[in-house]
Design brief:
The complex is a heterodimer of chains A (800) and B (167).
Chain A lengths: L12 H5 L15 E7 L5 E7 L1 H4 L4 E6 H7 L26 E2 L5 E7 L2 H10 L1 E6 L6 H4 L15 E9 L2 H7 L2 E9 L11 E7 L4 E6 L4 H12 L6 E4 L16 H12 L3 E4 L2 H7 L6 E9 L5 E11 L10 H9 L8 E9 L14 H19 L3 H8 L8 E2 L5 E2 L4 H12 L4 H10 L3 E10 L15 E8 L5 E5 L8 H13 L6 E5 L15 H29 L6 E4 L2 E4 L2 E7 H10 L14 E7 L21 E11 L4 E12 L6 H20 L30 E5 L21 H12 L15 H13 L10
Parallel strand pairs in A: 1-12, 10-11, 14-15, 20-21, 27-28
Antiparallel strand pairs in A: 1-5, 2-4, 2-6, 3-5, 7-15, 8-13, 9-10, 9-12, 13-14, 16-17, 18-26, 19-20, 19-25, 22-23, 23-24, 26-27
Helix pairs in contact in A: 7-8, 10-11, 11-12, 11-19, 15-16, 16-17, 18-19
Chain B lengths: L1 E8 L2 E8 L4 H8 L18 E4 L2 E4 L12 E3 L13 H8 L9 H14 L5 H7 L11 H16 L10
The chains are: A alpha+beta (800), B alpha+beta (167).
Bound molecules: FE2/S2 (inorganic) cluster (FES) (2 copies).
Chain lengths: 800, 167
């Protein structure tokens, strides 16, 4: 019974497979103009002067804009993440650089022209006189006393600092049977949605209305940021999200181009479109995860970890108004993840450099934390000689200790980590693997098994932020003919949450799914909401939808009860019919109830009842505590989905090439609304995790010049590299949402990092190989094998 | 510089004056308004711009419009006329959730169409190779592969005539 729990294909499939979706670049308006953005070729440079005369005189060019015009007419872009609320430093970031460029690709000037050819040609004619400034290219060097400064006003290059101690780590280390020390590094990566960024604006001066189409995840917050940058009332802007061709966090506002295009459309009175080129996306579209860790771990001979000291050093690139740097905070915030370690010390340094700023990317830093903890558990297993699964079982937070307060102040809502790991070990054939490995070895093949355990908290709610927040609205309308519309504050970048919302609403109303139409992504029609990120759409938006549908159902039951002369509590709503329990002959159709509500507001069935069937509800999720305690700790994540993965790989020792033979995951996101779409999201998350584990890395040289500019340099996996994945769900519902949903949108992305490193190490039982840095490129793997064989120092061909 | 060309687009002959700098994908999207063909890179890597040129798949961002004079171009728009007339390949993608955001999907459908034309009974490995010129960042490919397997099955089960090309 009911739609929740059913694997319904996405409601948007038909239109999209037909090629009849509407993405931002598909929108064409009469009189439309095109923008090309000139970007800094230097990682750090003062802009002495800009000569736009040649560009302006090119036929077809309408306008050339530089920082001077921006400074005179626009405000700084409001911060997406309230840096002050978490004790971090902020900057004033403008739609174009005013006098200094701080990374390659930062926007310096822009051309508006009649067509793209003229726009690009004119862009090349703009002459900028730059004075190169000293560059900060490395986060460790950035912390030295004599380092050049990315932001001269700051006095140093440290954006955020966090230091928290729990228990007595000194005593734990003194009393330990052993202490292990090491370092781990996850590489700089990017989300690479196949649709690049892009936006278009059109201004109606008679109505003072700017319509703004954007490949964005967050229409309502974006409207606030645009209004703030332009200094106009938010009611003069309507943001529309057309179909979005993938986002993964990277299309969270606000980039420089968004207010720039909005401003230009208002100024010129003509529609203005900007579509990003792939190279621009690699330079400026937001990076993630470039984090170095150091750890000391104190353990007992039985595998119990009694203390840890963890240092997190994140290279967040140049500071901007984007929320991406917050990923470094979240990495730190999750530690030590799924483990109960009574004596812990964690330190965070988020360091700025002259590189592309971070923007949110699936995993939002949780991935890197899980990676670190996997590597630590494997290290303890190596030192103690215990099986790696046993070390994890020994240290998991027990299932009966939730809600569990983690070191950072995080309040883990629920979980059963041991059950998930047990199940995945069964799926992968852990017990039988040694035999399989031995047989393969006899044939000269190197097989290894790896384990990864991820913790991916969702529903992020940060104090003071107008985007990262734990509430959202849904309006449900039932029309006089009984047709249903749900308008949501959450949006879908293609992940299918509109379908989940429709399922929840159909069940809430007791009607057919086919009646429900879902409208998203329009600030003019949809209720306030923060949009899509942090897998919040079903847990928060879905909960609001359930509340709104419940309100309408209650009114319909009241009216139907009067129509049927029955107690509303005795009514059953199902598939468009309302029946009295026990007397199935006594029935009225859903349509007739709706009709009566609208046609007879003064009728007997509507006495003392408010007219119409429309309800807007906002859901505020629990388990969030924003009032900091004495160490400054607060709870920002209500919901803690998690999973265990295990894989088997074959490694070619001659080339360092890795082939994944089997990849299994057991995932726990509480109640699953749509198992088909949940699996679809997991597949995508795992594939992105495998990409980061094996292939993907944004590379900069010593002058902070990016070397990865196209899909030829930055290689995301194709169908050939990704194996068939085996999934299983475990449902430990959270008590903090009405359905027990925990969020599934980012899951899968964290476990591949540790699992792959561990599997490759395991493929060579006779060699002492440690792989603590991803991606596991063939050269890195080959070098590690050679080093272990010969004792020669590892020759590092890839990493910088 | 302007150049006159004549093409057959989705079965219709068209004569056009084009800018010689125009790529095939820009011709299709901007001049002809067929926006189901997408642009993800313009460097020939992502496959979102895949169309059929005289029956073969090409990455239309890497073909100059001036070079297609006299040729036959088929885009995703030729594969259906409405929600109830999806091509069997499209229906297989929709039923098997072989897409999420749908940005790569038209290219995937065209590559699938070409693949099944060459090999009506592909193995999973054949399919993975057959679509390896089309990047998808959303799905992890698994449900796409399942969609292609299903599309091949449907084509084999129906009469040979019904499994033919859309063009
Ligand atoms: S747009 Fe042509 S291959 Fe990417
Ligand atoms: S479905 Fe989004 S890129 Fe393939």
């Amino acid at each position: 019974m009911g739609y929740v729990g059913k694997g319904v294909p996405s409601l948007t499939n038909t239109r999209l497979v037909a090629g009849r979706g509407q993405f931002v670049d598909d929108i064409a308006l009469p009189d439309m103009t095109h923008v090309a953005v000139l970007r800094s070729p230097y990682a750090h440079a003062r802009i002495r002067s800009i000569d736009t005369s040649a560009a302006e005189s090119l036929p077809g060019v309408i306008h050339v804009i530089t920082g001077d015009e921006v400074k005179a007419n626009m405000n700084a872009i409001p911060e997406t993440y309230d840096t002050g609320a978490v004790g971090a430093k902020g900057v004033k970031w403008y739609a174009l650089c005013l006098d200094r460029a701080r990374y390659v690709g930062e926007a310096v000037a822009a051309v508006v022209a009649e067509d793209k050819f003229a726009a690009y040609e004119a862009r090349d004619l703009i002459e900028v006189d730059y004075e190169e400034l000293p560059v900060v290219a490395d986060p460790e060097a950035a912390m030295s006393d004599d380092a050049p400064l990315v932001e001269p006003d700051w006095g140093d290059n440290i954006m955020a600092t966090r230091d928290i101690t729990l228990g007595d780590p000194d005593a734990a280390f003194a009393e330990a049977d052993g202490v292990a020390t090491g370092s781990v590094r996850s590489s700089r990566i990017t989300g690479s949605a196949i649709e690049p960024r892009g936006c278009m604006a059109s201004y109606d001066p008679y109505d003072d209305q700017l319509t703004f189409w954007d490949s964005t995840q967050n229409p309502h917050p974006l409207r606030q940021y645009l209004a703030g940058t332009l200094g106009v009332p938010d009611t003069s802007i309507r943001v529309i999200q057309p179909h979005v061709g993938g986002a993964f966090g990277l299309k969270m506002p606000t980039f420089q181009e968004e207010p720039l295009v909005a401003y230009l459309a208002r100024k010129l009175g003509r529609p203005v479109k900007w579509i990003e080129e792939r190279t621009e996306n690699f330079q400026t579209g937001g990076h993630a995860r470039d984090t170095r860790f150091r750890y000391d771990v104190a353990y007992k001979d039985d595998g119990e970890v009694t203390g840890i000291r963890l240092e997190v050093l994140a290279d967040v690139g140049a500071p901007t108004a984007l929320c991406g740097w917050g990923m470094s905070f979240v990495t730190w915030y999750c530690l030590p993840c799924v483990y109960k370690i009574p004596n812990s010390e964690t330190h965070l340094r988020s360091v700025v450099t002259n590189k592309c700023p971070w923007n949110a990317y699936r995993g939002y830093g949780k991935d890197a934390a899980s990676f670190l903890m996997d590597r630590i558990m494997d290290h303890v297993a190596r030192e103690t000689g215990l099986p790696r699964a046993d070390v994890r079982f020994k240290n998991f937070i027990p299932a009966d200790e939730f809600p569990y307060p983690q070191v950072s102040g995080a309040m883990l809502d629920s979980g059963n980590y041991a059950a998930a790991l047990e199940k995945v070990l069964d799926m992968v054939g852990y017990d039988d693997f040694p035999r399989q490995q031995e047989e393969a070895l006899a044939e000269g093949r190197y097989l290894g098994l790896g384990i990864g355990q991820e913790l991916i908290p969702e529903g992020c709610s940060m104090p003071g932020s107008l985007i990262l927040n734990g509430s959202d609205g849904v309006e449900v309308r039932v029309s006089p003919t009984g047709d249903v519309t749900a308008l949501t504050g959450i949006t879908s970048p293609g992940s299918g949450n509109e379908t989940g919302i429709a399922q929840i609403v159909a069940d809430g109303l007791g009607c057919e799914l086919s009646r429900v139409r879902v409208i998203q992504g329009d600030t003019e029609s949809c209720p306030w909401g923060f949009g899509n990120y942090s897998a919040r759409s079903i847990i928060i938006g879905g909960s609001a939808a359930q509340l709104a549908a419940g309100d309408i159902r209650e009114k319909m039951a009241l009216v139907a009860g009067r129509m049927l002369e029955a107690d509303p509590a005795d009514l059953e709503f199902s598939e468009g019919n309302v029946t009295v329990k026990g007397t199935p002959g006594q029935a009225v159709s859903f349509d007739d109830v709706a009709s009566d509500v609208y046609r007879n507001p003064h009728g007997a069935n509507m006495e003392e009842t408010e007219p119409a069937l429309e309800a807007t509800r906002h859901f505020k999720i629990g388990n969030v505590y924003h009032q900091p305690e004495k160490q400054g700790r607060f709870s920002a994540y209500p919901s803690w989905p998690n999973g265990a993965a295990a894989c088997i790989v074959e490694v070619d020792p001659e080339t360092g090439q890795i082939e994944i033979l089997k990849y299994c995951m057991v995932h726990d996101a509480g109640t699953i609304v749509n198992p088909l779409l949940a699996d679809a999201n997991l597949h995508g998350g795992i594939a992105q995790g495998l990409g980061a584990a094996l292939y993907e890395q944004i590379v900069y040289d010593e002058a902070a010049q990016p070397l990865t500019a196209t899909f030829m340099d930055y290689t995301i996996p194709t169908a050939v590299e990704i194996p068939r994945m085996e999934l299983a769900h475990q449902e430990t519902p959270t008590p903090f949402t009405p359905l027990g949903t925990k969020g599934v949108g980012e899951s899968g992305v964290g476990a591949p990092l540790g699992a792959l490193c561990n599997a490759v190490e395991d493929a060579f039982p006779d060699l002492d190989i440690t792989l603590n840095e991803v991606p596991l490129t063939p050269s890195r793997v080959w070098s590690a094998i050679q080093e272990a064989k010969t004792g020669a120092p590892e020759r590092e061909a890839v990493s910088r | 510089m302007k150049l006159p060309i004549s093409i057959a687009i989705n079965g219709q002959t068209r004569s056009l004056e084009i800018d010689t700098r125009l790529t095939l994908v820009a011709l299709v999207r901007e001049e002809l308004g067929l926006t189901g063909t997408h642009v993800g890179c313009t460097t020939g890597n992502c496959g979102a711009c895949t169309v059929l040129l005289d029956g073969d798949t090409v990455k239309s961002c890497c073909v100059l419009a001036a070079d297609v004079d006299g040729q036959e171009i088929t885009t995703i728009e030729a594969f259906s006329t409405g929600a109830s007339t999806l091509h069997p390949i499209q229906q297989a993608f929709a039923d098997n959730q072989g897409l999420q955001c749908g940005f790569c999907t038209p290219g995937m459908v065209l590559s699938t169409h070409y693949l099944l034309g060459q090999n009506p009974s592909p193995t999973e490995a054949d399919i993975r190779h057959g679509i390896s010129g089309n990047l998808c960042r959303c799905t992890g490919y698994q449900m796409i592969v399942d969609s292609v397997l299903d599309a091949a099955q449907r084509a084999r089960e129906s009469a040979p005539s019904a499994s033919g090309a859309a063009e």
